[in-house]
Amino acid sequence: GSAGVGWALLRYAEAVGEPAAGPHHRAGLAALHAATAVRSREGSWCRGRPGVALAVVDSPLALADRRLADWAQRAVRNTARAAPLGDHSLCHGELGVLELLGRHGPAAGRTPWVRRAGALLAAVDQDGPRSGTPDHVAHPGLLTGLAGIGHGLLRLGFPEQVPPALLLRPRVPAASRSAPHGPAALG
Q1: Nearest partner of 13 among 38, 30, 34, 36, judged by Cα
Q2: Are 27 and 9 in contact (CB under 8 A)?
Q3: CB count in 10 Å sphere of residue 163
Q4: Residue 183 has pLDDT above 70, yes or no
Q5: Cα four-point dihedral sign 14, 18, 24, 30
Q6: pTM attached to this predicted model
Q7: Which listed residue, 5, 55, 125, 172, has the most CB atoms within 10 A of its CB?
């Protein structure tokens, strides 16, 4: 939707060093403003507030826009207070919400992130993963299926080593990380 278009345009403007008055920057902000104007009650990454808010908080150019930054802050607060979603998928479920709550910093999202991540882990342990398909039928897909749920669970445990699939970010090379992670960090 328009949030994804705005996010992509702003990432491009940032990557090429386009000035604030540049066409991609202006079009990206306009698309994000349009996305925030939609009054969706849906609480998933693909259809509601969490996805639009994630597009805003992932973009320094969007956060520099006061209206977008204020909207994203309210969206994170409302998302944190909302009831958990009915499945675990990246697209329609809890893992998309957790990506937003995990990116927005300790003050706004840390406690709800811990609570919701714990509830998700307990649910997966007790009942198995719930895909984002009708009747939660298991399938191997990334956005609504087991691949995405597995990726999201790995990301919960190893966020510095497992890149966010929803933000199309590559893995950060080990040499550029500030501190060692994984088994080497324990030694």
Answers
A1: 30
A2: yes
A3: 15
A4: no
A5: positive
A6: 0.85
A7: 55
